Amino acid sequence: MQREEESERSVDDLLSDVDRLTDGEADAAGEESAARTDDSDSESSNRFRGRLGGLFSPRVFLVALLLSVLAVVAGGAVPLLGFFGRLVGLFVVGFLVGVVGSERRYTEIGLAGALASGLGFVLSTLTAAFFPFAVRLLAEYGVAIAGVGAGVGAIAALVGHYVGRDLRDGLTREL
């Protein structure tokens, strides 16, 4: 019986720590009240959005993803450049978002660049080789191909965003 009391105390201590960390969102004893109003739910939802808002913006991500896909397609369409043209396109998208935007958006730009480039690598594998061979190649190594494409695309977009933010900082800084 003593073990059960110790485990209950540790759970109560854990819940009180969670309550202290979340500024009173949870009850101190760990019991949630049965009757919650819509106002308290919307307050906690707004509080959550406020905390998450600085970390990730879905709207910026969708715009960056659209621009990244367009950059991968346009960069890949340049004869003799193909792969490097895609990376240059992702760099330019990251650069433009860094120069134009007033806030850091590394998460959105990196994720958009990774998705667009990973998809571009997989689709280019399908179109660059004899189709039955390409399907077999993707079946065996598709995850690796997409992973390399996503990694390289994320790096290109992030470096572009960093350079764009640095240029913006240099242009807007007082002398």
Task: Give a written overview of the molecule.
The protein is mainly α and 175 residues long. The chain folds into two domains: 2-53, no CATH class; 58-172, no CATH class. It is built from six helices and no strands. It has helices at residues 2-21, 38-53, 58-76, 83-100, 106-128, 131-172. Helix 3 packs antiparallel against helix 4. The protein starts with a helix and ends with a helix.
Provide a short characterization of the protein structure.
By secondary structure, the protein is mostly helical. The protein is built from six helices and no strands. It folds into two domains: 2-53, no CATH class; 58-172, no CATH class.
Strand content: under 5%
- The structural domain count equals 2
Outline? flat
Count of discrete alpha- or pi-helical segments spanning 4 or more residues? 6
Number of strands: 0
Structural class: mainly alpha
Any low-confidence stretches, pLDDT <50, length ≥5? 4-8, 24-37
Order of helices and strands: HHHHHH
- Radius of gyration based on Cα positions: 24 Å
Main β sheet profile: none
Helix content: over 70%
Mean pLDDT: 78
State the end-to-end distance.
71 Å
Provide the descriptors you would attach to this structure in a database record.
175 residues, flat, single chain, 2 domains, mainly alpha, 6 helices
Write the layout of secondary structure elements.
Elements: H1 2-21, H2 38-53, H3 58-76, H4 83-100, H5 106-128, H6 131-172
